[in-house]
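Comment thread on ticket #2218

A.B. wrote:
> Attaching the input chain for the structure job we discussed in standup.
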Amino acid sequence: MVFELALIYLYDYKYQTENKFLKFGCPYIRFVNEFQIVPIEVLMETVHIIQRFDHNNAYFVNKYIW
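C.D. wrote:
> Ran it. Output below, let me know if you need it in another format.
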């Protein structure tokens, strides 16, 4: 029996204050060092995560790539 699985990296907002959820119009997130393995059938869509250069643990969700 073969299972098609996906390894999912988990992220959270970089800052918890409401006015800092977005930066440059994109969600501003951080990696929380947790993973999940899920069946590939449960995935709804993919997202494009971009690292913010010269910053530690700072990423953007590219919402303009769809």
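A.B. wrote:
> Thanks. Noting for the ticket: The chain is about 0% helix and 45% strand.
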